[in-house]
Automatic annotation (TrEMBL):
This is Exosome complex component RRP45. Residues 413-424 have a biased composition (Polar residues). It holds the Pfam family RNase_PH. Transmembrane segments: none annotated. The gene is Exosc9. GO terms for cellular component: cytoplasm; exosome (RNase complex); nucleolus. GO terms for biological process: rRNA processing. It comes from Rattus norvegicus.
């Protein structure tokens, strides 16, 4: 599904606002949107919110064989997924150009910058090393995916704890969290991406563009930097020509923004660690505000239970009695009834058809008895309609034939002789 294009009016409005140094959400040119970090109950799970852009980060580990050319180094793997839950324009099960570009940029930012000590992930040289996998899921798309993804990835890596292991000879023992405390990863620095959007061939630039600003921009410059002002990677896209002074200016702005974001990340990690040590409540459920509808807990409101009976009696006394309504049943057909308004049933039609069938089948037919001797008092199911024939023990030796919906009819032996039936 393709994204809905902007109209010419919206495009002109956005460009005119940028020329006047105004933004739709009220920010200034170099302002970032609010960043919110929350952690899950397990180590290595976090959600980063950059305005309305939300990214879920999850880190996992596994003991695997190392690569042949790097026998003493662990393996880092990054995977970013763009689902339709984030935006209808993303197609599931298909790697778009945007997804490939974002994954490569994350690998250059975090793996090629050597921010994690991969040699500390080695357990047995040439045999067993730790493979660290970072899965990033975009939950909501409102622009600047790469910045939110890089923050979520580095926060999840800093928060992650791998199981402790011990090596005795050729035997490797893996301990559970109950047996030994998990071990954090060795992280040298925290590279963070900062995006700059350029408009009108580099005349204007904005920091942290949202989704609508990305649609009308001419080019994008992404600078990955740590708090020591060391550039880890830089990438320009969109086909615009930037001057040297513009790149220097963006690098200075990125240094300030990275220092602020790094301080926010460190505070969030310290707060989570303190809450876990004190035994307090933590996790995504605790980070939701109490006054929201989706909250898992609500504050108890005091209820006044005094004089309940008196108040109830007053309410009942003041209330008006219910009106007397006498329902009259409507008889549509015999055997049915209906109260109130509704649709007329079709039971009457069925009964009429049944009556017609019975009238056609109820014609008197001649009953011929076979040459079979029957004792008096027995009942035989003979006749086209299955009507029972009862032989009476009377002196006149008369037979009573019961037919449907007719009174019993007496037939004498003389009549039977004339019809050719056998004598009794």
């Amino acid at each position: 599904m393709k994204e809905t294009p902007l109209s010419n009016c919206e495009r002109r409005f956005l460009l005119r606002a940028i020329e006047e140094k105004k933004r739709l959400d009220g920010r200034q040119t170099y302002d970032y949107r609010n960043i919110r970090i929350s952690f899950g109950t397990d180590y290595g799970c976090c959600i980063v919110e950059l305005g309305k852009t939300r990214v879920l980060g999850q880190v996992s580990c596994e003991l695997v064989s190392p690569k042949l050319n790097r026998a003493t180094e662990g393996i880092l793997f990054f995977n970013l997924e763009l689902s339709q839950m984030a935006a209808p324009a993303f197609e599931p099960g298909r790697q778009s150009d945007l997804l490939v570009k974002l994954n490569r940029l994350l690998e250059r930012c975090l793996r090629n910058s050597k921010c994690i000590d991969t040699e500390s992930l080695c357990v047995v040289a040439g045999e067993k090393v730790w493979q660290i996998r970072v899965d990033l899921h975009l939950l909501n798309h409102d622009g600047n995916i790469i910045d939110a993804a890089s923050i979520a990835a580095i926060v999840a890596l800093c928060h992650f704890r791998r199981p402790d292991v011990s090596v005795q000879g050729e035997e490797v023992t893996l301990y559970t969290p109950e047996e030994r405390d998990p071990v954090p990863l060795s992280i040298h620095h925290m590279p963070i991406c900062v995006s700059f959007a350029f408009f009108q061939q580099g005349t204007y630039l904005l920091v942290d563009p949202n989704e609508r600003e990305e649609r009308v921009m001419d080019g994008l410059l992404v600078i990955a930097m740590n708090k020591h002002r060391e550039i880890c990677t830089i990438q320009s896209s969109g086909g615009i020509m930037l001057l040297k002074d513009q790149v220097f200016r963006c690098s200075k702005i990125a240094g300030v923004k990275v220092a602020e974001i790094t301080e926010l990340i460190q505070k969030a990690l310290e707060n989570d660690q303190r809450v876990r040590k004190e035994g307090g409540k933590f996790g995504f459920a605790e980070s939701i505000a109490n006054q929201r509808i989706t909250a898992f807990k609500m504050e108890k409101a005091p209820i006044d239970t005094s004089n309940i009976e008196e108040k109830a009696e007053e309410i009942i006394a003041e209330a008006e009695p219910p009106p007397e309504v006498v329902s009259k049943p409507v008889l549509w057909t015999p055997g049915t009834a209906q109260i109130g308004e509704g649709i007329e049933n079709s039971w009457g039609d069925l009964e009429d058809s049944e009556k017609e069938e019975e009238e056609e089948g109820g014609i008197d037919e001649t009953v011929i008895l076979d040459d079979t001797k029957m004792d008096t008092g027995e009942v035989s199911d003979i006749g086209s309609q299955g009507a029972p024939i009862v032989l009476s023990d009377s002196e006149e030796e008369e037979m009573i034939i019961l037919e449907p919906e007719k009174s019993p009819k007496k037939i004498s032996n003389e009549t039977l002789r004339q019809t050719g039936s056998s004598e009794f």
